[in-house]
Amino acid sequence: MKAVATVLLLLGFACTAWNCGSSTQKRKPKLDRVLIGEELQFGRKAAEYDLWREAIFRWEKVRAADPDNSRATNNLAVAYESIGDYEQALDLYKRALELNEDNNDIRKNYKRFLSFYKRHQRQLARERQRKGAEPQETGPVKQTSQPESGGRP
């Protein structure tokens, strides 16, 4: 019985030392610059192989640690566009531009996406109009951009 009590006591001290218990503060994950760069690069490699969910996971991780990272924000916009979540992509492109309006890659991606997005919205409106006349199924439209590489500003 003493052994069990001792083990529980030690676990209690260890848990307190490592902040295992419930905490009222939410901790923000911290990544240093090297890890942020590695996550950006890993996400870019995943995107090259069309592993968009993995890329999103990596770039969201960067944004959680550094919400003002324009590169991760732009790359997330490209990823969401690639999986067909155009509303999320639009919001992220706008945010990336707010963060770094001088970045040519971000501006180019946003301009290209906006052109596509407007055409896509017009196409959806035409389909809604036609839908009353005849039901019609369409496949997803895939438009891709290039994620920003880790070496660009």
UniProtKB/TrEMBL annotation:
Has the keyword Nucleotide-binding been applied to this entry?
A: no
Q: According to the UniProt record, where is the region Disordered?
A: 122-153
What domain of life?
Bacteria
- Bias (Polar residues) occurs at 141-153
Compositionally skewed regions (Basic and acidic residues) per UniProt:
124-134
Swiss-Prot/TrEMBL keywords: Signal, TPR repeat
Q: Which SUPFAM superfamilies match?
A: TPR-like
Spans of the TPR repeats are 70-103
User: Which residues are the signal sequence here?
Assistant: 1-19
Q: Which Pfam families match?
A: TPR_1
Checking InterPro entries in the record gives: TPR-like_helical_dom_sf, TPR_rpt
Which protein, by its recorded name, is this?
Tetratricopeptide repeat protein
Q: Which organism is it from?
A: Acanthopleuribacter pedis
